[in-house]
């Protein structure tokens, strides 16, 4: 299969109409139709926008194997699996997660310290 076939199969698998995808990536419906037919190449920017809409990576679209990725929920995974999933993210996303965790830990330590010292007054 080629990229045009992958895009069409994914769109159909996600129950989206051509006009919905066209609107999201910033082209008219006839242009989008040409993308799915392989008549017009998709730009990198359009592919990135499409990946966001499909909740997939561009690599998953390009190398589509016929299976629509299921939503990943980190909360129902054990700690080792959670760390493995976090490590699959790009560096910027990992940095955001670790900054958020640092902030939460700092806030918790401050609250614990405050509660301990206020209780002793």
Fraction in helix: 55-70%
Mean pLDDT: 88
Helical stretch count? Answer: 7
Beta content: under 5%
Helix-and-strand structural type: mainly alpha
Query: CATH class of the largest domain, please?
Result: Mainly Alpha
Sheet with most strands: none
Low-confidence stretches: none
CATH architecture annotation name of the largest domain: Orthogonal Bundle
> What series of H and E elements makes up the topology?
HHHHHHH
CATH topology of the largest domain: 434 Repressor (Amino-terminal Domain)
- CA radius of gyration is 22 Å
Topology, number of strands: 0
End-to-end Cα distance: 72 Å
Overall 3D form = elongated
CATH superfamily of the largest domain: lambda repressor-like DNA-binding domains
Overall domain count:
2
């Amino acid at each position: 299969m080629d990229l045009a076939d992958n895009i069409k199969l994914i769109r159909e698998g996600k129950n989206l109409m051509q006009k919905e995808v066209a609107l999201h990536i910033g082209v008219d419906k006839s242009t989008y139709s040409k993308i799915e037919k392989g008549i017009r190449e998709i730009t990198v920017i359009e592919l990135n926008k499409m990946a966001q809409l499909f909740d997939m990576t561009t690599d998953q679209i390009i190398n589509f194997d016929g299976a629509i990725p299921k939503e990943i929920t980190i909360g129902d995974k054990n700690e080792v699996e959670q760390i493995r999933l976090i490590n699959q993210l790009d560096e910027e996303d990992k940095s955001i997660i670790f900054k958020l965790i640092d902030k939460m830990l700092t806030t918790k330590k401050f609250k614990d310290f405050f509660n301990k010292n206020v209780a002793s007054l």
